[in-house]
Request: fold
Amino acid sequence: MGSLQSSPSHPDYVDLAEKTGFSLEQISILHKRFKQLSHNEDKLRREHLDQITDLQANPIREQIVEAFFDKRNFYQDIEEPVNEINFENFLEVMSNFRPPSDNLSEEQLVKVRKEKLRFLFNMHDTDKDGTITLEEYRHVVEELLSYYEALENETARGIADAAMLEVASITRGHMEPDEFYEGITFEHFLKLLEGFEIESRMSIRFMNMDTTTLCKLECRSE
Amino acid sequence: MAGLGSGTSPRLAGFVSLSLLVFVAVISASPDNVDGANETLRRPSGDSLEDSHHHPRNSTEHRKAFPVLAFNYEHVSKPFVISLWILLALLMKLGFHLIPRVSHVVPESCLLIFVGLLVGGVIKAMNQTPPVLDTKLFFLYLLPPIILDAGYFLPIRAFTENMGTILVFAVVGTLWNAFFIGGMMFAVCQIEAAQVGHVDLLSCLLFGSIISAVDPVAVLAVFEEIHINELLHILVFGESLLNDAVTVVLYHLFEEFAHEGTVTVGDALLGVVSFFVVSVGGIMVGVIFGILGAFTSRFTSHSRVIEPLFVFLYSYMAYLSAEVFHLSGIMSLIACGVIMRPYVEANISHKSYTTIKYFLKMWSSVSETLIFIFLGVSTVEGPHNWNWIFVIFTLILCLLSRVLGVVGLTFIINKFRIIKLTKKDQFIVAYGGLRGAIAFSLGFLLTDTEKKDMFLTAIITVIFFTVFVQGMTIRPLVELLAVKKKKESKASINEEIHTQFLDHLLTGIEDICGHYGHHHWKDKLNRFNKTYVKKWLIAGDRSTEPQLISFYNKMEMKEAMMLVESGSAAKLPSLASTASLQNAQQRAPPKQRAIPSISKTREQEIRKMLRANLQKTRQRLRSYSRHDLFSDPFEDNMSEIRFRKQRVQMERRMSHYLTVPANRQETPSVRKVWFEPEHKVYTYDESESPRDGAAPETSPDSVSLLSESSQRPGQSSRMKKRGDAEQGARAPDNQEEQQKLSRCFSDPGPKEEEEGEG
Reply:
């Protein structure tokens, strides 16, 4: 069981709550989980996340883990490469999955939507150059399809191609035969997933009650 | 002039059909009396008739001329009457849509009830006995098709995401309604002025339980026409389906108790246990039959024609089996349809799929029409006991309890929901709580005649009020409140990719957070399904196909279809296009494949899976709409203008990005695409035909898709007759064509129509 001796004191919690928007109970629960995962250390590393057994079956686990160590997702600037993160960074990444609070104005909703889509975009854009190229998109599709073993790469490529085609048609419309499409920029990505209602779909319920004790402590069993 | 003509003819048609309906109703009513008279007449004269019958044989033959033309109505009276009723009900349905103004304002259910009232009135005026909505007829024949249609095409994703909310509304909401109405009515009955002091508490509670349930038939009939967003639709509709268990239990419970007169605590506890037994038992029965149906469909590859029958029969058996044990038949039917569907559809042929879809829609449409008409007729007929206070208070209390229930429950539910229900949503949910024929039939089942009449009158009043007033006003209210309408889903492949991506992402985040939430369990279920269940229930290699593939194939097919139909003249400069995509590859110059051309194997694989799974994603899109079978984007997009526009776009896009080295070799494993030759709309530019065998690289994607199946050159020319299409008016044909193209399992049809698997 993770002990809380080295937990940040409550003023820090309040600070974090303000920055990320979680409630104090949620922060303390997530902190507990952070400690579980990191074996009571202050910093979380990739190996810690890799130990979660349930995550092994996930086809996009690489990207999920990478998202936690992606400096673009942090508020402060950290120099690359990021190999370990502290609790604050952990919370920052998690805050992308918070459901939008009620009574948000239209602009705030748009802002929330943009942030979530930014997170998704960063997940796809693995070489961090600001555009999702055909190769990167293909990689995404291949990983999604790797869930089902009996597939060839060709099929995945075809799907990714068709998807890029669609993006191009939505964003660029008519193109001359000698133009080419470099990749999906963030603006195109926004336009692409306009009707997707990402603010409600990309949310999980963060518990206000501590249920981590009820869950299997996978990282301890390794 | 023309306007006048078109204006009068619908009305004329309406009048004609109405008069026909009345006429037939009279005929159907009268033989019941005539038959009785004939019976009595015939018996005493039976002997003499027999004698006189024998005599001619013994005596001279010219006694009676051979009857060239005879009138023997009694022989066919029953099926004749039934068929006529159904036929005229459907003619009425047709008639309504010819009168556009009315059908926009008044929902169809109201019109049908109105017609029923008219017919009933006419029959009564002639002192005949009209047919009544017999409970057995309703529950065994009229209700199952509607429920099966609803359950089979239930949008699973929306349903499971909102399952908690739906269950709370269905169970707790209905219980609240029943007890509130029952209790308050008992209080009302104590009022001296009402003169209904003889109604005891248990009878009131029984009445409350009958009237409290939201009716799926009425909800479907009204909500389908207003096209609100999926969330509200599934909330109200799901509630109407799942509250059947509660209704069944409460009804039987109170009926038993009303006879006993007293209730003990033990009885109440038994009631609670009974609820679980009824609901879970019903679901189990449905699941068993669903699995049986799925398993059976695995072996039907050689008898495709009877495939739809398996689906119908297994579902009906599930319903009947549940009814045998007094379990919830509706939940059983829903469970059976939901379980059976993914596996059956992976196994059956395209034609069977279409047959199932159309038959279900057809039967449920007929059922619904008949139910509403009979409701009208029964209203006129039934013995009424109008008690002002009772009826008025029932109405008020129904509305009040519904509003209170919804508001109160939403307050609690919103604490657990991510997407909260707004006040507008709550209003629609409350307002959409329509009562319908189930309440009437349950009331009809009551045995205590004295109270039964009064109850029936009140029930009918509530039904009329909800269907007429609420049904008619809900559409303007939806407009007024600017409730979100059904999203015109564009079915973009990017959205599909991201839907799946999000599923996995959220599951992963839940795992990292360490709490087993909604996504975690869904993921576990999917994995279990993939590894174990699919292997058993799906034939062959289709068990390993992912959803994304099917979606992509659908897109490709759709675009290819459009390209095909919009013109074979789309000769894409494929050679020139390779350069453009090479540009797109600039970032990573050293590439084995500079051109992302679709290689032959991939193409075949895609097409194989395409034909295998196209319909799965197609029917995911709003196929639960009763009246519009043509409401998914495929058919929507087939309008002429969009055709032309998209044709141009498609040509450009295809030429830019995807080239198809359309060398066609024989590959026995590929299932072939074949078109019915009777679609003469497809003419083909004859100049194209020689090209196919020789230099295929200039042929566009679509033609390659079509003719990839034409392995033998002799048949290729026949295949080629699919080039051009006249758009616009051919939209339904296109859609059919698409269906055929899309899903072409080996139907062992006649040889010139299709080829079986190679």
Remarks:
- Residues 103 and 109 of chain A are 10 Å apart (CA to CA).
